[in-house]
Sequence to fold (442 residues):
Amino acid sequence: MIYLITTRRSSLAIAIRARRLSRLVRMLLALAVIPACRIAAQDTTRSTPASLDSLAERLRRAEEAIALLREQMATQAESQVQSASRVHVELFGRVLVNGFHNSDSTNNSDVPQFAAPSGGRAQGGLGGAIRQTSLGIRVDVSRVLGGRFDGELHSDFFGGQQPSVGGRHFPIFRIRTARGILIWDRAELLFGQEVPLVAGLNPVSVASFGTSEFATAGNLWLWLPQVRGTWIISKKGRVGIQGAVLAPTTGDPVGTFDTGLDPAERSNRPYLQARIRTQWGDEDSRGEIGVGVHKGWLRRTDGSLVSSDALAADARVPLGSHVEVRAEAYSGQALRGLGGGGIGQNLTTTGDPIKDRGGWGQLILRPNTLIELASGCGTGDPKDVAGLPAGRQKNVACEAHITTHPGGPVVASFGLRQQRTTYQGTGVAKNTHLNLAFGFEF
Fold:
């Protein structure tokens, strides 16, 4: 019988408590037996009924204590929760509170993506939120259909806020990723909601967790329902060919409850993606380089179709045991549905696809297990055309942060982020965002 393991730390704590209980039992037995041995060793000919009664009383108390400990251990074991399918289940997550300050207007106060026109006056402010708190579950089974199965459900509270006086302080729970992966010796099959295959790499960040860092500034990140396959064509270098069928979307806002079909869904065609990649190193210092293509369709209001296309490349390169470089770049058109392409713009006001190019890079330093330093920049750059629906021509974002784990589950991070967004006719809007985060992980 396999029990639900809530956390690695809780499992370790249970084992430690069990060992302590075992030691306590041995001590109780020793307290009962050693004096008896001493009494017997002193003079067996002078044993009295009183000494025998004392020995019997000690043994009785020891037996009662042992029975009580056994009962407590049995109760603790019964309190463990079983998974219905008898698989290994692990709970993980992070409780995080963010304090932030913006120097000017942004599209989103606690996790800004681009600067917004301020109308000629400063529109910054100070605030705090806890909606980047996350919760997840992992499962793994060693033998399924001739391979191994890994599953994960990851969620957070960044799904908006309830209409109330509390506003952002009453966040809505949402699903981030939810995937199951069947892994064989030379193949993998993934199903669920995951990052786009052609842009699966993201920067590391604590302050920008609800929305990935550099979104609308070169990072295509949006989690989409999909089925993905991988075939390892060469174990040397772990070269693999990948293909995915994804749910089509334009990334348009939807209503509170009812969601209608967007232009990508009305095309009656899925998104299609393919990628070739190579990997090296172990899991803790894994390197990977990949190149992929994306193809999708959107239906215009007149019924005609327009294509959504992209060519993308990504790289994750460890430089020794303490340094890592991450980077991604793409070029294409009508890419809002992959997460902020075209700075959140798909088609011009005349219905033409907005051509877009972008990318980001980040340098990460981990001098020890307590501290992480990182810095990077990203840019989204639609080619200057007339009729951009939101007027955003270019968006540049840069960030730097320090994250530390000072002890146990505690995590703290301080970050600086700057955005420069160019608008047609109004020039450049700027924002500086400061973020201080405290939390704990489990």
